[in-house]
Amino acid sequence: MIKKILVANRGEIAIRVMRSCREMGIKSVAVFSEADRTSMHVRFADEAYFIGPSPSNESYLVIDKIIDAAKKSGADAIHPGYGFLSENAEFSDRCKAEGIIFIGPSSYAINTMGDKITARKKMQKASVPVVPGTIEPITDLDAAVKTIKEIGLPVMVKASSGGGGKGMRLVSKEEDIISSVSAAKSEAMAAFGDDAVYIEKYINSPHHIEFQVLCDNHGNAVHLFERECSVQRRHQKVVEETPSPIMNDKVRMEMGEHAVAAAKAVNYSGAGTIEFIVDDDLNYYFLEMNTRLQVEHPITERVVGVDLVKEQIKIANDLELELKQEDLSQNGHAIEVRIYAEDPDNNFMPNPGKIKHITEPLGLGVRHDGYVYEGYEIPMYYDPMISKLICWAPTRDEAIDRMKRALHAYKITGVKTSIPFLHRIMDVPDFKEGRYNTHFIQDNSEFLDAKKDAKQKVKDVASIAAFVDFISKYDSAAANNGKTCKKASPWKQFGRKNSVNHF
């Protein structure tokens, strides 16, 4: 049985994994770069090992350094978290070769699902619906143009390797085909060392819905229902919630069964996520599989009542799943927002720096997964996510209200954050009514524009100034007329005079 786990990651996810380890009586080992010497995950672990310079390609992404730290610490297993080496097939194989348990799937599953074209082929064989498009990689520009014209616009051009929105272009106009394909191929080569792309028919009004799955080494698999992830910026998720506001029981059951079938098609083991694209009529298609723990996993934990990290560790210990599909259900509603050190008013530019003050939100139904503290300096070398804020309530409306309250209570000074932007999202009518898709942010730019909000505040101040001026003139006129009678309410007079411009 696993007695000590090295967490090959940093920040909030490292701490989150360590919490479950501590509850299970398992020792935890942290690794850290030069920039992370004072990071909270280093303090939280039972042991910590230095692995090199600040850039991730000289520390967190160097397999030899991670393996060496695991050996020095005597760790039985390595948990990769998400990002960095979490979906690296070579790392999975290397752990196995070194006699260290990799808490994640096999290299076969990682490779198969990591290559989008291979994954599409596998899904078709498993009778999982896939978006109409190519099933072979396209490396030739002319072939890509020809294929797009055959499928018909609009289409999505996507990198065969990788993800995270890189090497992805939407093509809506014929005159943009060549430039879009060229840009996608160039970006894919820069990010993944492979310029192969594939073409998919673009789904209008797309919803991004994913299903959490757990699979053991004995052929057992379950899904833990869906997460709605359609609030996105540049193909990156901003807000997630569960259950999805557009889902019904029939489609939920069908998608869950297809998610399990997709995982079984690659003999999956561990926690994984099957992502679907869904249209307004609830037709759904396989998008991709994330062969790791997801950033947004806490909302599933809160609604279903399962600790996913503990389940990962049990599966890595070769135990059979104790969870049965018929026993799993969704209870209440949970929403997660990602707090970033970035400037929403300046095209969301990263804003690293020192935290001067932080007040974390508390109260019933609030979970905060973070890692920063007062005096901590957010490094410039990594993703600028500070924390994840998760709110649960019996109903969706209550969950939104609770999130608004928690965001209002969340105070950070020293760096600019996405908190004000997230608070505005909660007030957008389309979000409150659950009537949104992946175009949500661009479709609601007027509601989310801080500058517009600032203009409204200026109008309010101007109205107040006009009111003060009115009172002053009223009092002066009364004094000049020598009136001794009781004055009429200036609020009432002001309201009558300015009924068109009341605020």
Keywords summarizing the entry:
D-amino Acid Aminotransferase, Chain A, domain 1, alpha+beta, 4 domains, 503 residues, globular, Rossmann fold, 22% strand, 5-stranded parallel sheet, 18 helices, single chain, Dna Ligase, domain 1
Report on this structure.
- This protein has 503 residues and is α+β, with helices and mostly antiparallel strands.
- It has four domains: 4-103, Rossmann fold, CATH 3.40.50; 132-201, 2-Layer Sandwich (Dna Ligase, domain 1); 207-450, D-amino Acid Aminotransferase, Chain A, domain 1 (2-Layer Sandwich); 453-501.
- Helices cover 38% and strands 22% of the residues.
- It is built from 18 helices and 20 strands.
- An eight-stranded antiparallel beta sheet has the order 13-12-9-10-11-14-19-18, sandwiched between helices. Strands 3-2-1-4-5 form a five-stranded parallel beta sheet.
- Strand 6 and strand 7 (168-171) form a beta hairpin.
- The longest helix is centred in the last third of the chain and has 31 residues, at 450-480.
Question: Over the alpha carbons, how many angstroms does the gyration radius reach?
Answer: 26 Å
In CATH terms, the superfamily of the largest domain is ATP-grasp fold, B domain
CATH topology of the largest domain: D-amino Acid Aminotransferase, Chain A, domain 1
What structural class do the secondary elements suggest?
A: alpha+beta
Question: Total helix count?
Answer: 18
Second-tier CATH architecture of the largest domain? 2-Layer Sandwich
The span between the termini is 66 Å
Work out the count of structural domains. Answer: 4
Indicate the low-confidence ranges by residue numbers: 494-503
The spatial strand order of the largest sheet comes to 13-12-9-10-11-14-19-18
What's the total number of strands? 20
Major sheet details: 8 strands, antiparallel
Give the overall shape, derived from the CA principal axes. Answer: globular
Arithmetic mean of pLDDT: 91
